[in-house]
UniProtKB/TrEMBL annotation:
InterPro entries: Dodecin (IPR009923), Dodecin-like (IPR025543), Dodecin-like_sf (IPR036694). It comes from the Bacteria. It comes from Elongatibacter sediminis. This is Dodecin family protein. Pfam families: Dodecin (PF07311). PANTHER family: CALCIUM DODECIN.
Length: 68
């Protein structure tokens, strides 16, 4: 039997939501062992005064399995 834990992280990218997810998971895997998956709980963008997107942000719920 295994036990998993879920933690929330926020990640950002200047390129896309997909890149924000990818970089968030990559960074989480450096600290958390046994990362098994994630889901996007929320998305948002930061815009300038002309309406151009400056940054894409995602709120990720990251699942990892606890070691015995």
């Amino acid at each position: 039997m295994s036990v998993a834990r879920v933690t929330e992280i926020i990640s950002s990218s200047n390129e896309s939501f997909e890149d924000a997810v990818r970089s968030g998971l990559k960074r989480a895997s450096k600290t958390l062992k046994n990362v098994r998956g994630a889901w996007v709980e929320g998305q948002k963008v930061d815009c300038d005064s002309d309406g151009f997107i400056r940054e894409y942000r995602v709120i990720l719920k990251v699942t990892f399995v606890l070691e015995d």
